[in-house]
Each structure stands twice: as structure tokens, then as C-alpha cells.
DNA sequence: TTCGTCATGTAATGGGTTACATGATTAC
DNA sequence: GTAATCATGTAACCCATTACATGACGAA
């Protein structure tokens, strides 16, 4: 039962819930698809996988990756990890947690990344929790700034200002998301293969208004250790 | 010569260069004034101070804090740390480094916080290095997004989009700063007590256009362990 | 046949937190 | 006199990285 890192364990469980994978691929997904928030090294990932197996949440299977809908690279895998029933149950239990941990930067991002498998009410609690966390932070920053403004040089001031602006921006983002959730819109379910949706109590389609970003395929690079 | 954490060591040296302080106060400054980037605990700070003393960069002095221009709280201190000549020299050497480390998130923030004591050319290199670092990151995100867009659900997509937007925003901020530096504006020198400016090769005043933020003194709170 | 990437691991180390232990000083 | 805050420290642990070691497979 040795308790390993919250966020890695969570993300691994979440990714494996979508489909079985081996460690190498798992790490890539962690760093790219979900890589917005965090990059983990093998030295962290493999030991973690072991303890998850030891906990009965995963099983190791030898053999080839299914590679779902598109067998792009028919590459052979050594050890494929698959979520067990207990693993699934455990993940669902983690998903339903709304404690203060879930509002911390990295933890929040991980939670958000799996909103597609999260019930609406939990989503709301997490978003609102995050928002009030940030608002607290803003209060502190404002207070501290008011106390020390004249003692600081302009660079320090500029740094603080930029920091606050970033936080304010995230609050606005959260506001939009929360409003969107409240209005009954649901961003879930547009993925290729959707694993069992547990308790969606609505279904009105239509996403958030997208700000125009247009990515182009450029340097198809990848991080290696 | 045991090498302790780069950023903490750097920040401690930088703060003590401005004026001598004891550990407790140092930590507060680290968490509030410069607290935008990082909070350290005593368990990290005190051992670090010890090794800095062992390296000959600080000396411990018993006695009262000078509290500079304003003896607001005439509070007595146990151990006041003061930068030695070697410490000053070492800090200056750290300040002049422009290696790739200086472009990482936290490290960069720490560097920026001490731009007031940094020469213009180093400032430029750090800002430009940071910018190209972020641009690389953007490329990767764009590429990864282009590769995986259709496999992702809308929440994951939204998370990526927001992440990219944040990075783009920081790039724009850096652009302004760089332009400002190039134009000869210098944000340095408006602090109450300015420690020796080493090599300013310009002096045109006038800061960056400030976006309006108006802080009010609200909850004058402080983080305690 | 050699290079790149896929693939799995381990040992040493780093950098930091938490919880604890201790005590002085100030405000009420 | 007691609570809050100031003030300094240590030991145990946690999470993760780095560098290393190993080897299979495909493409040039």
C-alpha cells in the first residue's frame, strides 16, 4: 500500500483507463498530450508503475499494443499495463475527491485534464475551489504589494504586476468555464473512444467559445532523455 | 564548497546584498516581496544559510536589525546575516551568468527580480534567452497539438489551448521588455536605497507603460509554517 | 554494421517539505 | 499569565532527477 506521488499515480491511472499502454508510450503521453503540466522521467515512472501493480491497480501483460483505431506504428511492446477492476474503482474514487489538494497548480491541471471522465458536480467544485484559491492568492499579493510598493525597484514591481496579471487572467478563464458548466454546456465526449461515462446529468452540446489558434505542423520533434 | 540549490542561494545572496537580515525576515521577503516565484520553508532556508556561511559568503552577527529607513517594528533579532566581500563577488559572478539555466521558469523569475543589480547587456541576454526558450516550447506544443488534436476530448484541448495562450502572453511581455531595454529605458534605480550600480551604460528614465492595477490594503495576512 | 529510437530498468543524489523541539518577546 | 508571533533549528521522509546499464529492432 506504499503511497506514491498523487499526481503521477492519478495521471497514469487516468491514461490507462482510456487504453492499455506500456511505460514508454505512457511517458510520451504524459509529456505531450498531457504535457502541458508536467514531464516525468523514467526513473519516476517505472518505479511508480511497479507500486501500482503491487497495489493491484494494474496488471502487466506481455504482448503487442492494440494501438486502437489507427495502427500507425506497428511497434512491438514489452510490457503492457492494463487497469484492473480495483484500479478502475480506485481511480474513480480519486476522481471524486474535491479536497484542497485538487486546487494546487499542478494537481488542478491534472484534474482538469481528466474532466472528460469527471461528473459535472465534481467538475464544478474543482473549478470553484481553484478559483477561490487563486482569489486568496491575489488578495495576498495585493496586500503585500500595498505594504512594500515604495521599497521595491521597478523591475521587482514589474515582476509582481505581471504575476498578478497572470493570476487574474486565470481567474477570468475559470469564470468562463464555470459559467459554461452552469449553462449546461458539456465539453465531454468528443474523443474518438469514450470510456464509460459515469453519471452525466445533462447532455447539451456545444463547447466554449474558442479563441482562434491555428497550429501548423512544423518541427515534429519529441523530448528524449 | 558544498553546492546548495541555485535559486535559493542566489536569492538569499541578492537580498542580503541590499541589507543584512536574519533568517526569519529573509524568509518573509522570499515569500512576499519576491514571493511571486517561490516559497521556501525554514527547513530549507536555515541549512542553506549555514553552508553559505561555511563558504565564506556570509557572516553571522548577533544583534539588532538596522531596519534601514523606517524602524517600524523595533524587533530584536538573534542572528543577522551579512554579505562578505567574497559573498558580494560571488553574487556578482552569479549575476553575470547567462547560461541556459537562467531561462527556466523559476530561475528566470529569480534573475528578473534582481535585474536592478544586473548590467544591461546581461539583462538583454537573459530576456532574449527566456524568449527563445518559450518559443521553442510553443513550437513543441503546436506540433504536438497538430499531431493529436482529433484524439483529444474538448477539456484536454481547452487545457492545451489555455496553456499555449499563457506562454504566448509571456512572449509578448518579454517583447515589450526587450524593446524597452533596447530603447534605452532602464527600470533600475527607483528603490529607496540602491546598492552600487556596477556598469550602467545608459540612464534614460521612464518606465514601461503600466497596465492599471490598483491594490488596496485588505487582509494584511502572512504565511506561517 | 552502425545509428537512432524503442524499451526497461536501477543507484546515487538532489532539493525540498513536514513535523517536531525549543525558547524569547510582545500584546492583551 | 497566556496567546500570538518572532525566531532558530533538526531528523525523517518524499518526490523526482541524473546518470548509468542493458538490450531489441528497423532503417541507412
Automatic annotation (TrEMBL), chains A, B:
Residues 124-165 form a coiled coil. It comes from the Bacteria. Keywords: Coiled coil. Residues 182-225 are annotated as: Disordered. SUPFAM superfamilies: Winged helix' DNA-binding domain. The keyword Oxidoreductase does not apply. InterPro entries: Metal_resp_DNA-bind_regulator (IPR052509), Tscrpt_reg_PadR_N (IPR005149), WH-like_DNA-bd_sf (IPR036388), WH_DNA-bd_sf (IPR036390). Residues 12-92 form the Transcription regulator PadR N-terminal domain. Pfam families: PadR (PF03551). This is PadR family transcriptional regulator. The lineage of its organism: Bacteria, Bacillati, Actinomycetota, Actinomycetes, Kitasatosporales.
